[in-house]
Amino acid sequence: MSETFDVIIIGAGTAGLAALREVKKRTDNFAIINDGPWGTVCARVGCMPSKALIEAAKAFHRRTSFEEFGIHGADCLTPDIAAVLRRVRRLRDDFVASTLSATEALGERAISGRARLLETGRLEVNGRELRARNIIIATGSRPFVPSSWLALDRQILTTDTLFEQKTLPDRVAVIGLGAVGVEMAQALARLGIEVTAFSKSNTIAGLSDPKVNAVAAELLADEFRVHLGRQADLRVADGDMRVRAGTQETAADAVLASLGRSPNIENLGLETLGIQLNERGLPLVDPHTMQIADLPVFMAGDVSGMRPLLHEAADEGHIAGINATHPAPIRFERRTPLAIVFTDPGIAVVGKKHASLASGTLAGEVRFERQSRARMAQRNDGILRIYAEPASGRLLGAEMCNPDAEHMAHLLALAIDRSLTVHDMLRMPFYHPVLEEGLRTALRELSKQLPRCRESDLAGCEAFGAQVLD
Fold first, then answer.
1. How far is residue 288's CA from residue 312's CA, in Å, rounded to a whole number?
2. Which CATH number belongs to the domain containing residue 444 in this structure?
3. Which residue range(s) make up the domain with 449?
4. Is 280 helix (H, G, I), strand (E, B) or coil?
């Protein structure tokens, strides 16, 4: 095998595999290097096993509404945590196996080991020096755990270790209420574990709209204890772990650390590239080309810290893979921002966040307590807020905590991507009765703040004012 390659990819996660797919189309002279287990973080320890756990918790929690439906006997149901976790791992292993097929047939072009850059175009792995005309760095990230917590060993869980547990303790403190912390806190609580959650921020799950954040925090607090706005500290004495945040203190058998992720750049040798690195030790990356400065080096996926989501990592790998095999980098337009948190009700942010909106931006909202389809399903909690330009009525973004948020967010992402207006959306058919009628209510509230449409325009069809019909 040649020691000089057209492209070397460092990392075989989502971004690395997406880059590999494009590189393979354009050259046979490549290598991919991976340190640790092969297979994406998403499949092994991230979005896939976590959603398997969430679905088990959601299924068991559904029993709390049985009486209202006229179904009796829910008190006899109990969760078998060990069996739940076995199913999570069984599904996880299947998901991982499906990702491995992309690299299993590469033979000696797939190298297990830790790569270190020596300079632009040169790196070392397993004591062997390789050269490349282009390098793609896609080394991913890992859960951040404060160094002072490491001595607590098995009492500290992360998503890297949570799904490997044979069973779970009775009391878990979740520290950090970003997307992962919120999802896991609710899932564990719904499986009967005593959960107390802490966040130094007053906002949760990536929300920035105060109204949506308040509703989300209130709904979650109905299921487990939530403490916001204070730094949490751990103290262990005689084997007893306690978590303190301000005046609040709770005992815990284990802590789930959900404090964000750190890029995998230790001993990677980024300093040898001869460019400025930021306080996190990372270079500036062009999000439209994934190129680092004007070097033949590209960075994609979670390692960059830009948009740590699977679909974004796949896009970045795609861009890097094409540009690493192209005479000059191509600039790509990025997708409409979309982030979904798989709580119940779901949480989502699409397009521009509330915090980034200009003064005077219009907002329309709907509360789901009285929404007819949501009431039928006993899922009538939550709020949706949509933002639009005051002059044109063009949709800008939305934040929500409401039933079926994952589906409404996709619909709004399409609308924002196509630069649709409030009236454009109101020209859509809305079947009855569906949860999306709640979305229409928010759009109608926005429409009232805009110039009226033509009399012949069905976007002007107004609400009946009757809950059962609207």
1. 12
2. 3.30.390.30
3. 338-460
4. coil
